[in-house]
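Input record, target 12 of the design panel.
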């Protein structure tokens, strides 16, 4: 039973079977649900945490919203996050061999499933052309993404070592080109609707880990495929009603 003011807290999902021989798999080699702090108890705080992505533009900065989180909203949000976790686990099962070989990493953030494509096995150093051995992985991803509703963001990331070639004058060019290559690989040869996609190059602006070692820089060179599952219309409606009730109580 969930108290009215409690934020739904997902349970971490650690697919240890996908990391054989590693007693403590790193968070980026497993499927993991990031949760909010246990003391966070208002919709305003919820909107500042990762899990608030599930309610999108329904959140606001007004103080009255802090009392709007009712039991129905909490329960529904928890159900949606659990469904996302389940979908991520299904993906991890289908991509077991790729996760084992450190080609792909999966995690969840609220209603988002993040699929990280590492440079290893996908791109040669300084190149934005997908290697042929990655094509079977693309086929799997197309099939998996086709079965789940939601918008798909493809983000290219590099390390902080500058690149300056005729084809790629900067890391911005390389990261954008890699993101485009992966996006085209996903929607050019399958049922995925291009209208679901956004493509962005991030260069070295969002490192996963510090760039002070070769291993860290390798981790940061990746393309992320981020599936944002849609907000349930019922949840939006319940939040709207809760806000109206709260506003009426405040005025009274």
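The sequence produced for target 12 reads:
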């Amino acid at each position: 039973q969930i108290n009215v003011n409690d934020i739904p807290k997902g349970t971490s999902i650690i697919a240890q079977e996908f990391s054989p021989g590693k007693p403590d798999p790193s968070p980026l080699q497993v499927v993991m649900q990031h949760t909010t702090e246990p003391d966070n108890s208002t919709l305003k705080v919820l909107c500042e945490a990762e899990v608030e992505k599930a309610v999108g533009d329904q959140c606001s900065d007004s103080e009255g919203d802090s009392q709007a989180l009712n039991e129905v909203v909490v329960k529904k949000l928890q159900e949606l996050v659990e469904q996302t976790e389940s979908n991520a686990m299904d993906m991890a099962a289908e991509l077991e061999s790729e996760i084992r070989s450190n080609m792909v990493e999966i995690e969840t953030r609220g209603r988002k499933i993040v699929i990280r494509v590492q440079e290893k096995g996908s791109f040669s150093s300084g190149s934005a052309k997908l290697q042929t051995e990655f094509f079977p992985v693309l086929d799997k991803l197309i099939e998996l993404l086709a079965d789940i509703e939601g918008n798909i963001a493809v983000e290219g990331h590099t390390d902080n070592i500058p690149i300056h070639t005729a084809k790629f004058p900067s890391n911005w060019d390389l990261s954008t080109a890699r993101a485009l290559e992966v996006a085209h690989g996903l929607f050019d040869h399958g049922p995925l609707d291009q209208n679901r996609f956004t493509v962005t190059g991030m260069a070295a602006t969002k490192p996963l880990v510090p760039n002070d070692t070769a291993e860290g820089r390798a981790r940061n060179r990746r393309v992320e495929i981020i599936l944002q599952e849609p907000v349930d219309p019922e949840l939006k409606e319940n939040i709207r009603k809760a806000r109206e009730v709260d506003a009426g109580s405040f005025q009274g």
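The CA atoms of residues 54 and 128 lie 33 Å apart.
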